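Hi, here's the filled form for the chain we discussed.

Project: internal
Contact: R.S.
Residues: 396
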Amino acid sequence: MNHEARQTIRHYLILKSVSAFGMGLIAATYVVFLRAKGLDLLEINMVNFFFFSTLFVCEIPTGAFADVFGRKASYVISCVLFSAGMFLYAITDTFWGFVLAEVISAVGATFASGAFQAWVIDRLKQQGCDEGVNIVFTRDQQLFSAVSIFSSVIGAYAASVHPSLPWIVGGSTSFLAGILAVFYMKEDGFVRKTFSVAKNVRAMAETVSASVRYARGNRVVRFVLLTGFAQFVAVQAPNMQWQIFFGNLLPSNTYLGFIFAGISIATILGATASPWFIRKIGCAEKSLNLVQIAIGAGIFATALCGSFWPAIAFFMFHEFARGFFSPVKNLHLNNNIPSAERATLISLDSISHHVGGMIGLVASGYVAKHISIGFAWQASGAILVISALLLLNRKR
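And the returned structure, exactly as it came back:
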């Protein structure tokens, strides 16, 4: 590997680490923060509903921006928007203020989506170092997980000093990442493409329609879309309510940082064990259904526990099972679709997650507000188990 390629990888990983640190600061206390600001469980979920909606609408247009103005410009704008969103979170006290902050952050997420990774891939290939791509993405995931674990613990302690402190530090960190990107990201060979609003609207419509047509005729794609949709409906309850659930079982919210660290470790272990699991079961679809059942059972069992240690054991089991899902699903999907349709079908997979997430946020927030968090978790777990059993029976 030449010096230029090593420098590119180093700069990419530095930027990734700085961004991950800023985001990790609020990961363990996000819902607690919104509750302290007076939002109820449904309102908190609705704030995130706007995040998913913005992702859905802006994914393709912001991708087009990167093609026209460059990956560097796209990533720098992403950092600035993330920073603005986090600073707005720190100073606002109203539902619509938080919605605006979430929409700004979501637009920032779509500006970074694809553009940052595309920059490092193209840069390494331009420098004659194709083997660097595998190296950078392996280190990327390891570093992101390690930094997120570390910063989530720090963020929980910072929140105990002042609830807005993690947001202020996180916003400053995101802005720092944008400044570093100005100096670190080089685009010597970038060629602008032409921009057309009508063209990009058509591209969005064509992506959805072409993917739907293909999915109708491909059983594997339908299966993957259904399992992903079901999971994203079901996991919104634990995703959004674990801080409240465990906060009621702990002496201090400071400990939530350690729980988030445990979540990260559990999912890493699950992802690491996924190749062994597929070989052991021998069938990707059966593996996915068993994983779905395990996730659902873990969520359901957690809700039944009235003390911390049994609850955290079942909860970490469900997170461990969730770590299996994406590697197994992605492998199964990519092994069964043609290269020409890959991009559109992966886009449809993401869309199914966004739609499932939006439905899950509204439903679980309503149930948690009007009945209880425990019942919302039990219903979510039951939905996942029943949907997996139906798909297993259908396959037979």
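Let me know if anything looks off before we file it.
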